[in-house]
Amino acid sequence: MTNQIIVNAKPQIVWDCLIRASQWHTWINMNDPPAQISGGKEVLSESASFKWYRASLRLKSKVIEFQDGNGIVWKTSLFGLGTSYMHWTLEAVNSEQTKLILEEVQTGLFPLIFLNDRNSVLVFNSVWLTCLKRKVENELASRSKAEPI
């Protein structure tokens, strides 16, 4: 299942926001606790393990591919009933825009039992992409207002 969105920002700015897992809860779902990255780190990195929340479910994930500034893949155990792989890719559209692509694959019993409607994952991921776009673009707008003319 693949979602994508154009973000009006350079890829590095989008990347910096995406890998700052400790801040996801501030722009995705403000009711969830912050993600916890192994070693008390603030950002995801190669082979990092982390605990986070999705739809109020506490998940444990591990980064299995890390291409600095270009993409990240993490694997999540779905309570012993399956596995989810989230693959994020960033592509420069032009000097000021990024195409952000999120592909998620779920295997095992968990998606069959709990996700009868496969569109629910597409909808959740669409919301995640829209929230990330809003976070990055609002941050850029705030910076530009703060800069002297």
Give a verbal description of the structure.
The protein is an alpha+beta fold and 149 residues long. It is built from 4 helices and 7 strands, in the order βααββββββαα. It has helices at residues 11-18, 24-27, 109-114, 119-146, and strands at 2-7, 36-37, 49-54, 57-67, 71-77, 82-94, 97-108. It has a 7-stranded antiparallel beta sheet with strand order 1-7-6-5-4-3-2. A hairpin with a 4-residue loop joins strand 5 (71-77) and strand 6 (82-94). Helix 1 (11-18) packs across helix 4. The longest helix has 28 residues, at 119-146. The chain is globular, with a radius of gyration of 16 Å. The termini are far apart. The model has no long low-confidence stretch (mean pLDDT 88).
* Total strands: 7
- Kindly provide the radius of gyration, computed on alpha-carbon positions and rounded to a whole number of angstroms: 16 Å
- The neighbouring-strand order within the major sheet is 1-7-6-5-4-3-2
Low-confidence stretches: none
Task: Indicate the overall shape.
Answer: globular
Cα(first) to Cα(last) distance is 44 Å
Strand content: 35-45%
Order of SSEs: EHHEEEEEEHH
Helix content estimate: 25-40%
How can the largest sheet be summarized?
7 strands, antiparallel
Helix-strand category: alpha+beta
What is the typical, i.e. mean, pLDDT? 88
* Number of distinct helices: 4
